[in-house]
Write a structure and sequence with these properties.
heterodimer; A: about 850 residues; alpha+beta; 4 domains; six-stranded mixed barrel; 24 helices; about 50% helix; B: about 240 residues; alpha/beta; Rossmann fold; six-stranded mixed β-sheet; four-stranded antiparallel β-sheet
Chain lengths: ~850, ~240
């Protein structure tokens, strides 16, 4: 009965103050939905172990991450073979390599299409616990030399390229021009190990190797039951030491300079984006937790203000003999309603946010279809449990503190005098702590959000040294079947590949809408990663004290199509293919920084690493500066060297087409011309140059937007919270204001007193906030280069913004209280 | 006679308006208090005596009428001018002491002096010490109000009221929150201050406290209904200086 009365009373109180109620519910909803969203994002993307259909989580075994170039590195198959044979902890393991492949029909009647492919071990489907919907998976004998080439298709390829033809199983198709038999079709959604659309068997020599090779091999594995990843990593360390110690000189590059090599990690964390932006993800989690704390503080404070408003009523209840337990419960009910309604709303907001994110992720990977299959955000049952737990904690925190406050005051005095004295010292300290923590938390969130947002914006707007307007880009892949790489005919094979590029360039450049065509291994704005180089006569004592530069293979006259210019020397021509000594063209920054006397042309330069170096190369030209990789990524380089494609004849190249007219027309011209030159050559990732440059930054840009949203939420929470704390504090000190004014304090003196206190709070909160922000920013700089201007804006602009907000939030209620006549203020309840 | 006049209220009215309801708190008040007088204002609850004290102390503005304080018109002053007069000329003693809880005893007493801005720190310290000694609270200078008894708190409030040597001391039920012993001590203190020349105006319910003053003004329904010398002082004075209309 009494419970019903209490609930009814709590509802009535909430209904009586609809603005307070809606405001509180929204604060809870926003705080909780951000927490829930971030939890779902991080668990789905990073932390929730990947089990598929096994009992043990799937782990990845790979080499130490290549921080210079920003990509995952594989292991020598021989070492994986040794690991497989010697490990006590591995239950099952399979090797794989990810890449792309060109799929075409056997009659070559239609153009080929590029798909993400995995060259894998036969057990992959058994390992994942998923069987084909049509046909079969792989068999051990599919690996054998001389076995008929077989392929398993994803449902996407089957439907997209083969129009869901059920007779596909058993029929022959072309995979990289090679006739291959389709043996199975996997069910929709299956893309293990990551974003695979086609599965091909590894050659037996990679599964049971006998020699060391330069191949980069990865492995998926499950450990034996009751074995931890930590135990397995200890085992790996021992094995690593043995392997690294016995690496031949020409394979010493397998280990890092500090001796690291093989490592095992949860499968979801074996992802380039996750590895690169791990600290950013962690910062995001931290920021969201700060927002949750902010929300809790705000709700607690709002409820605390309510207690202050209800002091007389509580005093009467105490006088009438309400048991303490009942009073606490009464105080809790409001919190229960607010937090519960807020949490329901949070589920709706989170669901909405996750849907938007899924759409964004799909857009982000639309060009390359490389979205890992688990990058689909859902609100799981674990998320709901986290929500329930958080709500319970929130109810207790936001409900018990006001209850404690309600029980700890002198109600006798309240009833006797009808007024309360000035704010007690403990209450004043609590109020100070609240404001300082709000300042601190909002400062951290906003500084990070501002820095990230401005940095990603300036990276998108950065001058990469190229013209992007009216430029179409694409990636070309030459099928190995028609463009083989054979050791016995290296020169001929290379020439064949190179000839294709020049033929395509010539044929495109005669088209009426095409101005110029350029081929580069990576176009400016992409392809981060750099290696050390030394200049003859100026080499550093230690290799890694030399400067670092990015190296790209380019066709002759590669500059015109992307708006670069030759500043000095000459372009590549036939002389560069005829000489044994490789020639290079450097960019203006190298020439300016290392050849200040203007003697770059004719100088010798070469790449170096811990265990060796390449041959000396002669500088024959200097071109205008470009920036490879995003300006935000630590692996990006300002220095670039170019070598002629004629000397390495890559099977994959990027093309930039400078066109007049529409992009659609240029796209058609490009595809038609490629088909005319060689129908088996695949062109993919066709997109505008602007899009290409933005692509690597899409994830950071998305995270920045989340940060910005968090920042706005934090600012709103902090502003309302600080205002509420200040207003509450001023309300409680209205009598004191009356006393001070009775004693002769002018309005300005009283206002200055409160503003002075706010300034001290600001000083403390901002110092701690800026300090904490710097620490987090430092964590993030491991993954990205932050724009200096954005750091200045973040570290100066945000504190100024918060300072204005706090001073305003203090000034408004103080002025309101000061405007009261002292006689009124002295008798303020 | 005129040069001794400290307070002169002429046709003072005070109306409170809340939620469109007008309440006439004071009506047509005419009152004169001379320097060195000890006046008590009595009357039932809600009669307007505290409102009258607020007007006298410039804590509030009258709705109509003229207020001369030391021959200066105080009815139309700015907020800051009123604050300055309160600070220099008026000392307040409240029923609930109204000490600021996070300031020490000494800091509470020095508070009105710090608002003046023209007294050196040393001078302030001296004045604080003197006034605390006068109320016998110097030994508690560094305590916080919460560490003091009610009587001690009120003595500190008296010290605060007299520290700046004001022309007028206004006391609003100064013994209302005290036991008889402490009430007696506070009243004795006020007597002493009066003997030393202070002008005191006290609102009180307590007839015994009221009788310690020279004059008793009785307020009823916002009007002064009686203004007379107390028996104790009738024999000592033949000069009836207050005018009651």
């Amino acid at each position: 009965m009494s419970l019903g009365i209490d609930i009814k009373y709590a509802i009535r109180l909430l209904m009586k103050k609809p603005i307070f109620t809606v405001n509180s519910i929204l604060i809870v909803a926003v705080g909780l939905s951000l927490t829930l969203y971030c939890y779902s994002l991080l668990t789905n993307l990073v932390f929730k172990p990947l089990y598929l259909n096994g009992e043990q989580q799937i782990i990845s075994i790979e080499a130490a991450f290549n921080e210079n170039h920003g990509y995952r590195t594989g292991i020598d198959p021989l070492d994986l073979y040794q690991l497989r044979n010697e490990s006590q902890y591995i239950d099952s393991l399979g090797i794989y390599q990810e890449g792309t492949t060109l799929i075409g029909d056997i009659e070559q009647s239609s153009s080929t299409k590029k798909y993400n492919a995995t060259l894998t071990e036969w057990n992959i489907f058994e390992f994942a616990g998923v069987q084909p919907i049509l046909g079969r998976g792989f068999r051990p004998e599919d690996h054998f030399e001389g076995a008929e080439p077989v392929v398993v298709l994803s449902q996407t390829v089957w439907q997209d390229y083969f129009s869901a033809n059920e007779a596909i199983v058993g029929s022959m198709i072309r995979v990289d021009s090679l006739p291959t038999r389709v043996v199975g079709v996997m069910p929709a959604g299956f893309a293990f190990p990551s974003s695979s659309q086609v599965w091909l068997p590894q050659p037996q020599m990679n599964i049971q190797p006998t020699d060391r090779v330069r191949t980069q091999m990865f492995a998926y594995a499950r450990l034996k039951p009751n074995t931890s990843l930590k135990q397995f990593n200890s085992e790996l360390i021992t094995l690593n030491q043995r392997i690294v110690a016995n690496l031949p000189q020409n394979m010493a590059w397998r280990a890092t300079s500090d001796g690291r090599y093989m490592r095992a990690l949860p499968f979801k964390q074996a992802n380039t984006d996750v590895t690169q932006y791990y600290n950013v993800f962690m910062s995001m989690l931290m920021v969201v937790l700060l927002i949750l704390i902010l929300a809790c503080i705000n709700i607690g404070n709002l409820l605390l203000s309510r207690v202050n408003e209800r002091f007389k009523e509580i005093a009467i209840r105490v006088a009438l003999g309400v048991p303490r337990k009942r009073l606490v419960l009464q105080m809790l009910w409001e919190s229960v309603f607010i937090c519960t309604l807020g949490s329901l709303l949070a589920v709706v907001f989170t669901h909405w946010g996750l849907n938007i994110s899924n759409d964004y992720l799909s857009t982000m990977f639309a060009v390359n279809n490389a979205k890992p299959f688990w990058w689909h955000l859902t609100l799981g049952s674990d998320g709901l449990w986290v929500l329930i737990l958080t709500v319970v904690v929130m109810i207790l925190v936001t409900g018990l503190i006001p209850a404690w406050r309600a029980l700890s005051d002198d109600f006798n005095a309240v009833l006797r005098d009808g007024t309360r004295g000035a704010l007690g010292r403990s209450a004043a300290r609590a109020s100070n702590a609240l404001v300082v923590s709000e300042i601190l938390l909002s400062c951290v969130v906003l500084v990070i959000a501002t820095i990230l947002l401005f940095s990603s914006y300036s990276a998108g707007m950065a001058d990469y040294g190229v013209e992007t307007q009216g430029r179409l880009t694409a990636r070309l892949e030459l099928p190995l079947e028609s463009y083989p790489e054979r050791s016995e005919t290296v020169v001929e094979d290379r020439k064949k590949r190179t000839d294709f590029y020049y033929q395509l360039k010539d044929q495109l450049e005669v088209q009426p809408h095409i101005e110029a065509v350029s081929f580069m291994s990576s176009l400016p704005g992409t392809g981060e990663g750099s290696s050390y180089f030394e200049i003859q006569g100026h080499a550093a004592d230690v290799y890694n004290e030399n400067p670092k530069a990015n190296t790209e293979s380019v066709t002759r006259d590669a500059w015109r199509a992307v708006g670069m210019t030759l500043i000095e020397g000459r372009n590549f021509d036939h002389r560069d293919t005829e000489t044994d000594m490789g020639n290079v063209i450097i960019n203006a920054s190298i020439a300016k920084d290392y050849f200040a006397d203007g003697n770059a042309i004719g100088s010798q330069i070469r790449r170096v690493w811990s265990t060796g170096h390449r041959e000396w190369q002669t500088i024959i030209g200097v071109v205008s500066d470009t920036f490879h990789g995003s300006t935000m990524q630590t692996s990006s380089a300002r220095y670039t060297m170019y070598r002629p494609i004629d000397r390495d004849g890559r099977t994959q190249m990027n093309i930039a087409v400078h066109y007049l007219g529409t992009e659609r027309q240029a796209r058609k011209t490009l595809l038609d011309t490629i088909n005319a030159v060689d129908i088996n050559v695949g062109a993919y990732h066709i997109q505008s140059y602007q899009n290409l440059i933005q692509q690597p930054m899409l994830l950071v840009s998305a995270v920045s937007k989340i940060f910005l949203f968090c920042g706005i939420v934090a600012l709103a929470l902090a502003a309302s919270g600080i205002y509420a704390v200040a207003a509450n504090s001023v309300t409680q000190r209205t009598q004191e204001i009356g006393v001070r004014k009775a004693l002769g304090a002018t309005d300005s003196k009283v206002i200055n007193l409160f503003m002075g206190k706010a300034l001290i709070q600001l000083l403390v909160g901002l110092s701690m906030g800026v300090g904490l922000s710097l620490w987090i920013v430092n964590l993030m700089t491991d993954a990205m280069i932050l724009d200096n201007v954005s750091v200045i804006i973040g570290l100066i602009g945000v504190p100024l913004l918060i300072a204005s907000m706090v001073l305003l939030a203090t000034f408004i209620p103080t002025q309101k209280a000061v405007r009261l006549e002292p006689s009124v203020a002295l008798h303020q309840d | 006679m005129n040069n001794q006049r400290l307070v002169e209220l002429t046709n003072i009215n005070k109306t409170f308006v809340t939620d469109e309801i007008e309440t006439q708190a004071l009506s047509n008040i005419n009152l004169r208090i001379d320097k060195g007088e000890y006046v008590s204002i009595t009357g039932p609850s809600g009669c307007g005596k505290s409102t009258l004290l607020s007007l006298l102390g410039l804590l509030d503005n009258s709705s109509a009428g003229t207020y001369l304080l030391a021959s200066h018109d105080a009815s139309d002053l700015s907020r800051d001018e009123r604050a300055q007069i309160r600070n220099k000329e008026i000392g307040f003693i409240f029923q609930s002491f109204n000490l600021i809880s996070d300031l020490t005893v000494a800091e509470n007493v020095e508070l009105p002096l710090t608002y003046r801005g023209d007294i050196s720190k040393q001078e302030i310290a001296k004045m604080v010490r003197e006034s605390l000694e006068k109320v016998d609270m110097a030994h508690r200078a560094n305590h916080f109000p919460s560490q003091l008894s009610g009587g001690q708190q009120q003595r500190v409030a008296v010290a605060r009221a007299i520290a700046g040597k004001p022309s007028l001391i206004l006391a609003d039920e100064p013994t209302g929150n005290l036991d008889s012993k402490n009430a007696h001590a506070v009243m004795t203190m006020l007597d002493q201050l009066h003997e030393e020349g202070a002008t005191i105006c006290m609102v009180t319910h307590d007839p015994r406290s009221a009788d310690r003053a020279e004059r008793v003004i009785e307020v009823y329904d916002g009007k002064i209904v009686a203004d007379q010398l107390t028996k104790k002082h009738q024999q000592n004075s033949s000069d009836f200086s207050a005018i009651a209309i």
